[in-house]
Specification:
It is a single chain. The protein folds into two domains: 9-20 and 168-388, Creatinase/methionine aminopeptidase superfamily (Creatine Amidinohydrolase, Alpha-Beta Complex), CATH 3.90.230; 45-166, Creatinase/prolidase N-terminal domain (Creatine Amidinohydrolase, Chain A, domain 1, 3-Layer(aba) Sandwich), CATH 3.40.350.10. Helix content is 34%, strand content 21%. It has helices at residues 9-14, 28-44, 56-62, 92-98, 114-124, 140-149, 159-166, 171-194, 201-214, 276-295, 302-315, and strands at residues 49-53, 74-78, 83-88, 104-108, 131-134, 154-157, 221-228, 248-258, 261-262, 265-271, 332-334, 341-345, 358-361, 365-367, 371-373, 377-382, 385-388. Strands 4-3-2-1-5-6 form a six-stranded mixed beta sheet, with helices on both faces. Strands 7, 8, 9 and 10 form a four-stranded antiparallel beta sheet that branches.
Length: 402
């Protein structure tokens, strides 16, 4: 076991120094550029207006971080560049405080209808009896309310515009994600060093959270999955995770949020002696992950990556399709402001790979009631093809290539 065990929680935490402050967030000028480009596309496609709901889509275009709730809070972007925020009257001061890209703020009182206000704002900007694009993350109660209150509007899914922008990351976005990935990889290395027989999944989860904080991630871990032994055969965990035993498979899946962008890395190895079956499946997993990477070529489809994974697995008599032992889910997912976003690396997805796309490569192999092996690293597409955010695991005994 190289790099696994032999240290303590206290020692590892004390060795960490803050680094998150060394990378800059997205600047106002980039948000404005996104709006300008979106308006150009809206003009080309004759889209008069697009609604952006509170959440990551609102943030992506305006820089306003607002969590969705039971009240309508969002912004309408018109093709001429006019931006109008819609919010409850009592939130107006907060909206003004959070505002990065300037726009008018139209408000509704608690007893009034935000859906009528929505239609009024459109009419004031000469948008009537036409298509209006709606952020697909908008809750149904809002979309339904707009539709019933404004029957002359035709509501259209804004995915064609929003996804086309968010799938292609800028160099600044990739730089932030790279920094976050680097931090999480260092946390992964530290996790391996603190392992000992009897340690609980909660102790490891708490350590991972605190380690991310020590690196300067104020919110700690964005998520954390810690699984030992048979528990690792369940991709997203179990209700009551077991404590670590000697010779258990260890699966650690975690990430953090840095300047609103997310990291996500999984490492799997064995604490103790590696048996023949564990080694065989781990080696197949590594082979499958490499095949998916090699299939990630500009102009090819997202589906072709998933296909490449399954070809390898079937060559080792795993699967086919989603059958176990084998890969029970898609090969990967896009990542950025959301941990799962476009493009999805899944069968049937004809989206073609372009420079700037970022996605996970995690063709997990589950062996029911025994263990699971997931090696997850992320890829970003360049003009010269795929690049790793983090180098894949080296071997089952030496996962970090020490």
């Amino acid at each position: 076991m190289i790099g696994i065990g032999g240290s303590t929680i206290e020692k590892e935490l004390n060795a960490i120094s803050s680094k998150a402050h060394l990378i800059d967030p997205i600047k106002k000028s980039e948000f404005q550029l996104r709006i300008d480009k979106a308006c150009k596309l809206m003009q080309d496609e004759n889209v008069s207006a697009m609604y952006l709901h509170g959440g990551t889509n609102l943030y992506y275009f305006t820089g306003m971080r607002w969590s969705p709730s039971e009240r309508m809070v969002g912004a309408i972007l018109f093709k001429n560049g006019i931006l109008v925020y819609i919010a409850p009257e009592f939130e107006k001061g907060t909206i003004m405080d959070f505002m990065l890209i300037e726009g008018n703020v139209k408000c509704w009182e608690e007893h009034e209808s935000p859906f009528q206000l929505f239609g009024k704002v459109l009419a004031e900007n000469n948008v009537t009896e036409t298509d209006v694009y709606i952020d697909e993350t908008t809750p149904y109660f809002i979309t339904d309310g707009i539709d019933k209150t404004n029957p002359k509007l035709n509501l259209v899914n804004a995915k064609s515009i929003i996804a086309s922008f968010r799938m292609i990351k800028s160099s600044n976005e990739i730089a932030i994600m790279q920094y976050a990935m680097n931090i999480t990889l260092e946390v992964q290395k530290a996790v391996a060093r603190i392992l000992k027989v009897g340690i609980s999944a909660k102790e490891v989860t708490d350590f991972i959270n605190e380690a991310h904080k020590r690196y300067g991630i104020a919110s700690g871990s964005y998520f954390c999955i810690v699984l030992f032994g048979k528990d690792s055969s369940f991709p997203h965990g179990v209700r009551a995770p077991k404590n670590l035993e000697l010779n258990d498979v260890v699966l650690i899946d975690t990430g953090c949020v840095l300047h609103n962008y997310i990291s996500d890395i999984t490492r799997t190895y064995v604490y103790g002696e590696v048996n023949e079956e564990q080694r065989r499946i781990w080696d197949i997993e590594k082979e499958t992950q490499l095949a998916a990477f090699n299939a990630s070529q500009l102009g090819e489809t997202c589906a072709s990556i998933d296909d490449a994974s399954r070809i390898v697995l079937e060559s080792h008599n795993l699967g086919p399709d989603y059958k176990l032992p084998g890969l029970p889910h898609r090969t990967g997912h896009g990542i950025g402001l959301d941990i799962h976003e476009y493009p999805y690396i899944v069968r049937g997805n004809k989206t073609r790979l372009k420079s700037g796309m970022c996605f996970s490569n995690e063709p997990m192999i589950c062996v029911p009631n025994k263990f699971g092996i997931r090696l997850e690293d992320h890829i970003y597409m360049t003009n010269n093809g795929p690049k790793w955010f983090t180098e894949p695991s080296h071997s089952i005994e030496n996962p970090f290539g020490l």
